[in-house]
Structures are given as structure tokens and as C-alpha cells.
Amino acid sequence: MTKNKNNQAIWSTRINKNGSLLFQKIGSSIDVDKKLYKEDIEGSIAHVEMLFRQKIINFKIKNKIVYGLEKIKKEIKNKKFEFNKKYEDIHMNIEKRLFQIIGEDAGYIHTARSRNDQVITDLKLWMRLATKEIDRNLENIIKTILKVAEKNVETVMPGFTHLKNAQPISFAHYLMAYVEMFNRDKLRFKNNLENLYENPLGAGAIAGTSFNIDRNFTTKKLGFKKPTCNSIDTVSDRDFVLDFLSSVSICSVHISRIAEELIIWNSDGFNLINLSDKIVTGSSIMPQKKNPDLLEFLRGKTGNIFGNLFTMLTILKGLPLSYFKDLQDDKEIVFKSNETLINSISILNEVLKNFSPNKKKMLELANSGFITATDLAEYLVKNNNMSFRKAYQVTAMVVNYAEKKKKKLHELNINELNKIEPKLTKEVLKVFDLKNSINSKKSFGGTSFDNIKKMITKYKRA
Ligand code: ARG
């Protein structure tokens, strides 16, 4: 019997010419998937333990393999392991090294499995941890936002629709909108875990296996909840990759929207926030500049993240079942998207800790653009027995009048208002007060200070 030759590809008995160096360079994924070494070894140990329990391999061989795998894990951890592109990927690199360490008994490790089920087992194990790390990062950013919100419950700013002054709001209410977004992200990632808890190991190359394996054993051992049901679907399925990439994309949309908003507010035109020197960069020619480069980085990186989702969708579109080499690229884009997201969340966290609202400017802007007009319309409905449409028209006349006289609504006196609506009394003037306006929005989810305080307390407890 020919022995496994250490410097030859596993399939060298069948394919008797070495692949071209170019193909090795292009086709090998070791530079990317070596990141999965721990998961690969964890999966392999669970697999051989199952093989032993099922009497498919004996105790001695099982122990030798586990010993070899543990040794390889240490070598990789201590950077003593030589990865070789010739052996394509992390699975073959480890198997090859196992032969060097324990000899021919290494040949039993790949009984009743294929790289097709092995690779997705590794990736799912990795993704479960990555998902939890993202969750922790989101938790951190929510805590930071809550701290800033707590200090700004009574900071008045204009709420914008179409970027035009709409209604007065509390700055904290605005910040709490970000908390909602990140909580939805957390939930989205959590929902993804459902699929990540299905164990692919045991699907083999496509058909399952004739060995009497116990998939429930590896399921338990690897922390999965149940084995996948169809071996063909199992090795073809990359929906969990799409779920991950799309959740990363949606989270990134949120980060990008916040970044864009802060860029606008930091512009000289708006001047609603100040960024500390820690988070701005200068210009090579304009000495006065303090640019929000970090925020622009966040907005820009969202493009890369979308690109990765589209890459995966395109790879899968039109791909027949089951495994094809096309799928190998999934890991590179998943790792890249994950890294970019983690960096982006950390950067946003830094930004949120290092900016301050320009309260004076916020108030000044909130006092322009006839921002309390809706409050007047609502007052007329409640106190002067008008339909909302009628009240809307009367208010529009008041706004036209104020605009003509170059006055703000709160600068109008009762005589001027009575020219338009004789039934109005002095009491109406309070509706033009910004804090009154905010505090009147007591409907659940509205901007009243009390509502916001309650929401902050609720999320601090959660
Ligand atoms: N490196 C491969 C990948 O990541 C592992 C699966 C290889 N399977 C195969 N039949 N070539 O997709």
C-alpha cells in the first residue's frame, strides 16, 4: 500500500500531475480560512470522538488523533505552524500536519465526512461567536448613547423632516432613536442564531454516509441544537452567510445614517454639534480646518459592506446544488464585513463619547422656521371647536402674516392674532413656547421630557 506522502496533495494518487503554481496561488484559500483553525480542530475532535463511540474507529486511533490535533492547535496558536498553499485550505493543512505528527493513523480522521460539511461547520461555529461579539459591541454603543441622552433630556432642538424645521424635540429623544435602531440590529443578529444552531456535520459531500454515525452526538458536543435535515441542502446552503451579511449591512446603514447626520450637524452651516480634537483631522493646505474624517470613514465603509452582501448574492444566484468552488469566497467577505463592522461600531462609540451639542445654536435654530405652527393648529382644535383642516388653514394664515412682518410666531401679540382669529385669547401664546410644545407630546413614544426619561430608565435596566 502506498503511504501518504507528506509533500503531495491528498489526491496525488488519482491526479498525478502537480497543479500549476498559478492555480495553487489563485485556488488556495489558506490565507483566509486559517482564521478557522480553532473551529476546524474543535469540529474534528467532536467528529473522531463520535466515530469512536460508534465503534467506527478504535480508542487508540481516536486518542492519537486528538493528541495530534491538540498539538497542531498549540503550534498554530504559537505561530509555529507552517501553512502551505499547496494544501489549499485549513482542513487539508491540518490533515497533512496530522500525518506528520501521528503517522498513517491520521488517515482515519476523514472517515464519514467531507470538506463540504466540514467547512460550513467551521464557519457556523465561527459565526456564532462573531454574532455574540457584535452583540456585545452593540450593547456598548447603546450604553454610550444612553449616557449622552441622559444629559440632554432638556436640550431643545429642531426636529427636521426634509431637513426643514418641523417640530421642536428633545435632543435626547433624537439620540434614543439610535438606541431603537441598534436594538433592532441586536434582535436581527439574535434571530440569525436559529440557523447557526443547526449542525451541518454528517451531511458528507452531498449524500450523507453509509457509516453508522451519530449526528446528535456531534450536535451536542459542538453546541448546536439539532442536525440539519437534508444533506444536499446542507452542503449547498449559504443562507446563513446571507443572513449575516445582510444584518451587517442593515446595521451599517444605521451607522452610516448617524454618521451623515453628525457630519451635517457639524458643518459650518448647521453648527449644532462640536467634535473634540480627538476625532477630527486637519487639512494639508487650509490651516483652519477640523474635518470629520472618521464619520466620513463610517459612511464610506458602508459601501464595502453592501458590496460584500451583493458579492454573495451574486455567487449564489444561478448556482446549482450542491457544493462548488464558487462558494469558497464566502469566508473572505464574511471576515471582511465582520471586521469592518466591529471597527465601525468602535469608531462610532468613540465619536459619541467625544462630541457635544451646541445647545445655544440648537435652541436658536429651533426658534426659527415657524416650528410651533402645528401646536397652534392643535390648540385651535382643542379650544376653539374647529376641525383640524380648518385650524390648519387659520394657522397657515398666521404663519403668512408673521412671515410678512418678519416676526417669529412667539413674537406675535394677541391683537395681531385676533385679526386672523377673533376668538383667540392670550392663553394661546403659550403654544409658541418650545418646551411647552415638547412636553405636550405625551403620546406613547412622543418627545415629552417625561416620556424620554422613562424610556432611558427602561433601556438602562434592560
Ligand atoms: N476550501 C473549501 C471552501 O472553502 C472547502 C470545501 C472544499 N470542497 C471541495 N469539494 N473542493 O469552500
What is the percentage of strand-forming residues?
Answer: under 5%
CATH class of the largest domain: Mainly Alpha
What's the number of helices?
18
Name the helix and strand elements from N-terminus to C-terminus, one letter apiece.
Answer: HHHHHHEEHEHEHHEHHEHHHHHH
Number of domains: 3
Distance between the ends:
64 Å
Low-confidence stretches: none
The CATH topology annotation of the largest domain reads as: Fumarase C, Chain A, domain 2
Q: Per the principal axes of the C-alpha atoms, what is the gross shape?
A: elongated
Structural class estimated from helices and strands: mainly alpha
Q: What's the topology here?
A:
Blueprint: H1 21-27, H2 30-33, H3 37-53, H4 59-77, H5 90-102, H6 115-150, E1 156-161, E2 164-170, H7 171-196, E3 198-199, H8 215-221, E4 226-227, H9 231-236, H10 239-266, E5 273-275, H11 293-316, H12 330-353, E6 355-357, H13 359-366, H14 373-383, H15 388-404, H16 414-420, H17 434-439, H18 449-461
Parallel strand pairs: 3-4
Antiparallel strand pairs: 1-2, 5-6
Helix pairs in contact: 3-4, 3-6, 3-8, 4-5, 6-7, 6-12, 6-18, 7-10, 10-11, 10-12, 11-12, 14-15
The structure holds arginine.
